[in-house]
Amino acid sequence: MARHIALAFLLSLLFCAQNIAYADFDCAQNIAYADDCAQNNAYADLDFDFYYLVLKWPGSYCKDCTVNGCCMPTTFTNYPLEEDFLIKGLYTYSDSGQAVTKCNTTKFYVNALRNLIGDLYVHWPSIKCPSNNGVSQWRDAWTNYGVCSGLSEEDYFDKALKLRKKINLLSVLKGHGVLPSDFLFYSPLYVETAIKVGLGADVGIKCSTNESGKCQIDEIYVCVDKTASKVINCPVLPKFICGQIAYLPTFSNSMLKDTSSCFDPHQMVTCE
């Protein structure tokens, strides 16, 4: 097993050295297409059939050339982040590949999440600049997708947190020799296969281009059954296209900028 992993590392590094320019070109050229494919029309009159649990890698977000770095959540002092995948969303979708959103106008109440708030601060934070506490993105998740789930607000977010923990994606990747590193490059197909072996189901991988023009693994789309308890093969795989090689950038809390001075804790929103 160790020899297999070492060989995979060596092949990845050799492939990177020989093909990095071509791979970066591929990644940059296809990002717009990949993003377009992710934006399916939403229909509130459709029943949803499955969820996409979308997990994002913070190291890639911090180095993405399309964002202005990453910022420390205002809750960071009491709830520092881990070097792990973060939840981006739990999306309701139909088997035809259409997002099912805004099924009703049930309001979002942050107090309904009081039993989950610590876990949400750590595992479903906002690291977008300027700094904020994550509440606005939880509200968006609930009013767009949670209201279509048939779950209570607390259950919807609890399901997402439990799925992230159960999947343990970073551990799956490390078990197959895919490590956060600024120097190790992998075939996205190898990464996808490693996750499929680990989870027993296929996934979608979304890449982005960092400030150095390198192709990086950005988000993983895991399909989950309608009960939000079991990982399944995707009825529809998102049509993202990565380059021939990509990497998982290292992440540390030192990468997070502090813009908390532009935050009004009384309003629980960021300053404009």
TrEMBL record:
GO molecular function: ribonuclease T2 activity; RNA binding
Record's signal peptide: 1-23
This protein's name: Extracellular ribonuclease LE-like protein
Lineage, top ranks: Eukaryota, Viridiplantae, Streptophyta, Embryophyta, Tracheophyta
InterPro entries (alphabetical): RNase_T2-like, RNase_T2-like_sf
Signal recorded as keyword: yes
GO cellular component, one term: extracellular region
Source organism, top-level taxon: Eukaryota
Family: Belongs to the RNase T2 family.
GO terms, biological process: RNA catabolic process
Organism from which the protein derives: Cinnamomum micranthum f. kanehirae
Keywords: Signal
Transmembrane segment boundaries: none
Pfam families: Ribonuclease_T2 (PF00445)
